[in-house]
Amino acid sequence: MSRTVLKLFVAGRSLQSERAIRNLRSICREALEEDLEVVIIDVLEHPNEAEVSRICASPTLLRELPPPVRRVIGDLSDAGDVIAGLGLHTSRA
């Protein structure tokens, strides 16, 4: 199984940012079986990282590795859509 790198881009400590972080943690804990590295990036503190990754909206979740890069925009409230949108494998049967 290859390593998966997820980057969540948020804007400050807004309600939507906090919700996306909570939802991502829940998805990782409850549904994903992969070797994960999760990085949370505040675009207000690190605008260059957002620019390099071509982030136009927040929250945005990127699956950076393995290629190709895939992204989901929003608060990540629908775990099924997030998992499918990023092409991830679940531990659920």
> Strand arrangement, largest sheet?
2-1-3-4
**Main sheet, how many strands, which sense, barrel?**
4 strands, mixed
Report the helical percentage.
25-40%
Which radius of gyration do the C-alpha atoms yield? 12 Å
Secondary structural class: alpha+beta
Shape: globular
Mean pLDDT: 90
Number of helices: 3
CATH topology: Glutaredoxin
The figure for the number of domains is: 1
- Helix-strand topology string: EHEHEEH
Number of strands: 4
Distance between the termini: 17 Å
Low-confidence stretches: none
CATH superfamily: Glutaredoxin
Overall CATH architecture: 3-Layer(aba) Sandwich
Our estimate of the beta-strand percent is 25-35%
CATH structural class: Alpha Beta
Characterization of this structure:
- With 93 residues, the protein is an alpha+beta fold.
- It has a single domain (4-86), classed as Glutaredoxin (3-Layer(aba) Sandwich), CATH 3.40.30.
- The protein is globular, with a radius of gyration of 12 Å.
- Strand 1 (4-10), helix 1 and strand 2 (36-42) form a beta-alpha-beta unit.
- The protein has helices at 15-31, 47-52, 79-86, and strands at residues 4-10, 36-42, 60-65, 70-73.
- A four-stranded mixed sheet has the order 2-1-3-4.
- The protein contains three helices and four strands.
- Helices cover 33% and strands 26% of the residues.
Topology:
Elements: E1 4-10, H1 15-31, E2 36-42, H2 47-52, E3 60-65, E4 70-73, H3 79-86
Parallel strand pairs: 1-2
Antiparallel strand pairs: 1-3, 3-4
